[in-house]
Amino acid sequence: MVNPGGSSQPPPVGAGSLSWKRCAGCGGKIADRFLLYTMDSYWHSRCLKCSCCQAQLGEIGTSCYTKSGMILCRNDYIR
């Protein structure tokens, strides 16, 4: 995920690292094979959703947008 105006690269994670990442959406440990990183936080792919339409952003593209602290899909950002 890309966060315009913010850091788009997550901090490095060492190979074989046992440190679990916490999801910013649900607070749970991320043990999934894939995780998302935006707004300086990690997310389960099912938890990163558009604040307006609730679309799962990991499924609809490779970008997300922020405005007034909300995470938005492209369509809602443009609107």
UniProtKB/TrEMBL annotation:
Domain (LIM zinc-binding) ranges: 21-79
SUPFAM superfamilies listed in its UniProt record: Glucocorticoid receptor-like (DNA-binding domain)
Pfam families in alphabetical order: LIM
Keywords: LIM domain, Metal-binding, Repeat, Zinc
Gene3D superfamilies linked to this entry: Cysteine Rich Protein
GO molecular function, one term: metal ion binding
PANTHER family named in the record: LD11652P, LIM DOMAIN TRANSCRIPTION FACTOR LMO4
Protein known as: LIM domain only 4b
Native species: Hucho hucho (huchen)
